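Support request from a user on the community tier.

User writes: "When I paste my structure tokens into the form, the page sometimes reloads and wipes my input. The last time it worked, I copied everything first. Here is what I submitted, just in case something in the input itself triggers the reload:"
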């Protein structure tokens, strides 16, 4: 589980330093595996202006740039990026600095007979995205000489903890914050999510169809949202996802990923126009196939749980969605799905064993207070959270009307659902 310090502090009111928080996490059983402090890692990287960019005398694809780094005389840099040009602002790193994306320490070099005393870097070289086609191109108002990480909001330390299977509640940043608050590290912030009432009837019905077999879905919630405008998510959201190793896709996918990690409530989004008829949650039939969002075709077996419409399987439940109902920039209406799947079944599914997971929902198997958030009236908490996030500036989505539909399957009494009480003889003996 990964999160950043600033993200944690959105749920935890604390003045404790990073080191104290890290120590406390391990002490309460949330073992810290690593801390990546980008303030230190990216300290040498500064904002620079390219004064000139001349053709390299001995290479067609290289330019000799003079960069104003804000710390004295201009610095000569040999650059091979196609977008390097006079007047632009980029990110400069001097000799002696470590380049994380290349895993090298930069030195003064001579490239095709021309000395280079630094480097103008791409986002790939800073490990903030996979983009290596050109150097970072900053807006005109970026301050020359300023630390790039601080200016871009990339100086937030990332913490990674190792979770045991019984701590599904801490697969959410809010859950980690709750544990820290209980351990005396601050006060939990628990602002309520404003309910969003449905305004029309959802035309898509859902059936849980498992017959006499053990149900693989305990509860399923669906909410229709119309008049959506999809596109790139805002920079704050993209930075937050990149900080924990997720690649931003678009606003619809990114906000569901955010809610998954922020609240521990996995979601998936279907393009409503691509769903044919009603939805059925059932076991797959041997030989059925699914062209998934990763562009791979999976052959399914009867032990797998799927979501199907009139045309066939649309999603491998809790693992990965289908290409046929995936969202794009042309999407206008969406169905937001939140379900409580049988965790053991999800873990046994072959794509899950290979490390696949839904773009918008990772199967968590969370129970109790962090289960499927369906309240009176059928309003899923998850949909409220998504709506609330977009109300506070999550990019170009526009919500016009919404409704929801949910159905529930009775839970079986399983041993791991029962909790010991202090009345047991063993507990009394332990207390003395």
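"...and here is what came back when it finally went through:"
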């Amino acid at each position: 589980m990964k999160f950043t310090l600033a993200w944690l502090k959105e749920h935890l009111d604390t003045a404790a330093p990073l080191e104290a928080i890290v120590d406390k996490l391990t002490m309460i059983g949330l073992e810290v595996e690593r801390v990546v402090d980008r303030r230190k890692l990216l300290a040498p990287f500064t904002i620079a202006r390219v004064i000139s960019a001349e053709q390299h005398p001995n290479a067609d694809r290289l330019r000799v740039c003079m960069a104003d780094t804000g710390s004295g005389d201009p610095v000569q840099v040999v650059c091979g990026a196609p977008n390097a040009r006079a007047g632009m602002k980029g990110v400069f790193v001097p000799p002696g600095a470590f380049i994380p994306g290349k895993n090298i320490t930069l030195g003064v070099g001579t490239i095709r007979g021309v000395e280079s005393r630094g480097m103008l870097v791409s986002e790939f070289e800073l490990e903030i995205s996979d983009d290596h086609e050109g150097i970072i191109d900053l807006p005109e108002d970026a301050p020359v000489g300023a630390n790039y990480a601080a200016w871009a909001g990339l100086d937030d330390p990332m913490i990674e903890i190792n979770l045991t299977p019984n701590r599904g509640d801490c697969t959410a940043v809010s859950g980690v914050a709750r544990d820290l608050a209980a351990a005396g590290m601050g006060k939990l912030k628990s602002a309520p999510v404003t309910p969003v009432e449905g305004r029309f009837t959802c035309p898509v019905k859902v059936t849980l169809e498992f017959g006499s077999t053990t149900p693989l879905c305990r509860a399923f919630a669906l909410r229709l949202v119309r008049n959506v405008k999809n596109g790139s998510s805002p920079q704050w959201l993209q930075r937050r996802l990149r900080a924990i190793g997720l690649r931003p896709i678009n606003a619809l996918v990114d906000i569901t990923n955010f809610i998954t990690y922020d609240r521990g409530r996995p979601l998936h989004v279907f393009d409503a126009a691509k769903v044919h008829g009603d939805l059925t949650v059932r076991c797959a039939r041997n030989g059925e196939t699914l062209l998934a969002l990763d562009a791979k075709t999976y052959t399914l077996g009867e032990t797998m749980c799927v979501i199907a419409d009139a045309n066939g399987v649309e999603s491998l439940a809790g693992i990965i969605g289908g290409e046929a109902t995936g969202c794009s920039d042309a999407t206008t209406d969406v169905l937001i799905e939140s379900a409580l799947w049988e965790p053991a079944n999800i873990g046994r599914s072959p794509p899950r064993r290979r490390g696949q997971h839904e773009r918008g929902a990772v199967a968590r198997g969370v129970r109790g207070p962090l289960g499927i958030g369906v309240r009176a009236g059928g309003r899923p908490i998850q949909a409220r959270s998504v709506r609330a996030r977009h109300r506070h500036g999550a990019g170009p989505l526009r919500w016009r009307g919404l409704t929801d539909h949910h159905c529930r399957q009775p839970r079986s009494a399983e041993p791991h659902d029962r909790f010991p009480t202090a009345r047991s003889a063993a507990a009394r003996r332990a207390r003395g």
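Agent notes: The reload is a front-end session timeout and is unrelated to the input. The chain is about 20% helix and 25% strand. The two ends are 37 Å apart (CA to CA). Escalated to web team.
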